[in-house]
Amino acid sequence: MSDSIDRVFVKAISTIRALSTRTGAGSLPRPPVEARIMLYGLYKQATEGNVEGVMDRPLGSRPEDENAKRKWDAWKSEEGLSKTEAKRRYISYLIETMKTYATGSNDARELLSELEYLWDQIKDIDPTPTPPMTPRVASHYNTSQYNGSMYGSTAYISGGGGYDDLQSELRDVAIMKREVAMALRKVSLELEKVKKGKESKEWEGFKRMVRFLCNIIGGVLKRLLVDLMVVLMILKFIKFKQGLDLNLNSDGEVVHGLVNKSLLWIFKLLDKCNLIGWKKIHIDVL
After folding, report:
1. Angle 83-101/106-122 helices, nearest 10 degrees?
2. Three-state SS for 285?
3. pLDDT for the residue 257
4. 126 with 253, same domain?
5. How many whole angstroms separate alpha carbon 88 and alpha carbon 93?
6. Residue 105: helix, strand or coil by DSSP?
7. N or C: which end of the chain has fewer CB within 10 A?
8. Do 249 and 195 reside in the same domain of the chain?
């Protein structure tokens, strides 16, 4: 709920700003001082909360001091209202005031219609507490007197009145933008770290998988080479049995060469491994 109120409240401020830029024949009449003072008090309560602890009641007897006292008293009269409730009352009272003083042109009526439409969507929803806004320094409080046309200046109440205080609002918006930007940068950095960590883990997992596959492939290749050597030896043996004869004399002299002797030892090794039957091999020894 508070988010919806905030959006309509910002829309109300932008509407005021649009109307305040109108000059000359397009300018609109100002509301009475009492209405502007009330709007001022609601605006300050909505944006800063209770006046107590923020600033003291102005002193002095000059005209600008009297105007500052009236502003302070209007703010003080709203003490105790939550910021959300103050925004609700501000928007509602602003719409009623605009219906009286801001219907002199098509643009003004269109702005009023847009604001009233947004307000109708949320005005019956139960309010919820509004999170505190960034506090402003009380010394920046503007105490200049009321002057100028209501819509002919850059604010509804010249010098920071309730209708306007646009400079204060713009400062709030700028501060909030900086805070949001900082938060977004922080979130982006955290996401970047998480992404890099995830990519690093994925790369390590990929390397482990490659090593595992290489080990399997290497083992298979080794087994194939061993099997190939065994097959070659068997083929050599078959060829030997079909057309060759291996003979050794009594003193161990190799008759048919070193190759045949090597084959003899290989066959004996295969026999011990139960790969072939040694009794099936007939070798004549002199």
Report:
1. 150
2. strand
3. 53
4. no
5. 9
6. coil
7. C
8. no
Provide the CATH number for the domain around residue 94. 1.20.80.10
Model-wide pTM > 0.90 = no
Quickly tell me which residue has 């024949």 as its tokens. 25
Low-confidence ranges of the chain (pLDDT < 50): 130-166, 244-256, 275-286
Indicate if 26 and 108 belong to the same structural domain.
Answer: yes
Helix (H, G, I), strand (E, B) or coil at 247: strand
pLDDT for 110: 87
Evaluate whether 39 touches 94 at the Cβ level (below 8 Å).
yes
Task: Give the pair of three-digit tokens for residue 52.
Answer: 């107590």
Range of the domain at 176: 166-232
| Half-sphere exposure at residue 13, Cβ-oriented, CA atoms within 13 angstroms | 24
* CA 12 to each of CA 113, 142, 156, 267: distance values in angstroms, whole numbers, following the listed order: 11, 21, 12, 102
User: What pLDDT is recorded for position 251?
Assistant: 44
How far, rounded to the nearest angstrom, does the alpha carbon of residue 235 sit from its chain's CA centroid? 71
Residues 59-115: tens digit of each pLDDT: 888 888 888 888 899 898 888 989 889 899 999 998 998 888 877 778 888 888 888
How many domains in the chain?
Answer: 3
CB-based contacts of 127: which residues, under 8 Å, 6+ apart? 1, 2, 5, 82, 84, 85, 88
Token look-up 């002057």 returns: 147
H helices, E strands: number in the chain: 7, 2
Crossing angle of the two packed helices 166-243 and 2-20, in degrees rounded to 10 = 120
Contact (CB, 8 A) for 170 and 140 = no
Phi, psi of 78 (to 5 degrees): -95, 10
What stretch of H or E contains 284?
strand 284-285
Write out the two tokens for 82.
């939550």
pLDDT at 271: 57
In the DSSP assignment, the letter for residue 280 is: G
pLDDT reported for residue 270? 59
* Per-residue CA distances from 138 to 53, 56, 168 (Å): 9, 9, 11
